[in-house]
Design brief:
The N and C termini lie far apart (about 55 Å). The chain has helices at about 5-10, 20-35, 65-85, 110-125, 160-170, 185-195, 210-220, 260-265; strands at about 90-95, 100-105, 130-145, 145-160, 180-185, 230. Strands 1, 2, 3, 4, 5 and 6 form a 6-stranded antiparallel sheet that branches. The protein has about 290 residues and is α+β, with helices and mostly antiparallel strands. A hairpin with a 2-residue loop joins strand 3 (about 130-145) and strand 4 (about 145-160). It has one domain (about 5-245). Helix content is about 35%, strand content about 15%. Helix 3 (about 65-85) runs antiparallel to helix 6 (about 185-195). The radius of gyration is 20 Å and the shape is globular.
């Protein structure tokens, strides 16, 4: 276990987890909000016994800030080492799709695996054995009175030039997917920004309310450890995968004519993919 003084020194320049005292205050604030809400106590049981040197749960939770602190330093060092091995310029991307987000109050329906899988398929379509990417899924309130959450993947990409990245994402419908690409000049600052685990910062730079924070903490408490991390071309330790087999196949259009159509509508799931459409018209607007 890394000593407290060494970790405090390593986290001095961090934008969010600055010290153990700061993490302890964040943990107490989160537990206070969860206890005042109607969130199931089973989801955050044991978090009040967590500390810098021990875990109060059998399996660590994504909502535990002490566990995030212990994991963050090795992840930042590993991502920096991985990107320093890449040739050429590094780029930071922010991928966003409207269907990934949701209105306020429906964050528990958001599954990180969906956005991670779709971004992985985009990279697979490039059929490049040299490209690597590492980042994190972020939940960002829209701000300016718009009661929506944006779900974005922020990642550092290496091993590919900017023209190829822009050509790949430009082949998609701009109304379906949006991406921002910028060249990295300061790798340390980029890694710290991309791996930022506190992503509840609205775009109007106003502090989120207690209701939004409680919903965000409850979403984290029901999530497996490391579910928000995004990796491509590297293993769980952020080591480069030298042998890769890319199997990218476009999804075929299913034949649902005749009896297949009747059978599909008879046995399909009754819960819609976006149940908030019945009450909110965000995704129905032109």
């Amino acid at each position: 276990m890394t000593s407290r003084s060494i970790l405090n020194k390593q986290l001095t320049e961090s934008s969010e987890l600055r010290s153990f005292q700061h993490v302890e205050a964040m943990q107490k604030e989160m537990l206070q909000l969860l206890k005042q809400s109607q969130v199931d106590p089973i989801s955050y049981v044991g978090l009040e016994y967590c500390g810098p040197n021990h875990c109060g749960r059998v399996n660590c939770s994504e909502a535990c800030w002490f566990g995030t602190l212990r994991r963050r330093v090795p992840e930042v060092v590993a991502i920096r080492r991985l990107m320093e091995q890449q040739e050429g310029a590094l780029h930071k991307i922010a991928v966003w799709k409207p269907v990934w987000g949701c209105p306020f109050g429906w964050l528990h329906y958001i599954k990180p695996a969906i956005s991670r899988a779709e971004t992985t398929r985009i990279f697979n379509s490039m059929c490049s054995m040299s490209i690597v990417a590492a980042g994190m899924l972020k939940i960002i309130p829209a701000g300016w009175g718009d009661k929506r959450y944006f779900c974005e993947i922020h990642a550092i990409v290496g091993g590919e030039d900017r023209e190829r990245l822009e050509a790949t994402f430009s082949s998609f419908d701009p109304n379906d997917i949006t991406v921002g690409i910028s060249e990295i000049t300061d790798l340390d600052a980029a890694v710290d920004e991309v791996t930022s685990c506190i992503s509840m910062q609205p775009r109007d730079e106003q502090a989120p309310g207690q209701t939004e924070l409680t919903e965000f903490y409850a979403w984290l408490a029901n999530m497996k450890r490391g579910a928000r991390l995004f990796r491509y071309g590297c293993d769980e330790n952020f080591d480069l995968i030298t042998y890769r087999k890319i199997t990218w196949k476009p999804r075929p259009k299913k034949d649902r004519s005749g009896w297949r159509r009747r059978r599909y509508y008879k046995f399909r799931k009754r819960i819609p993919a976006r149940p908030w459409n019945a009450n909110h018209g965000y995704y129905d607007q032109e």
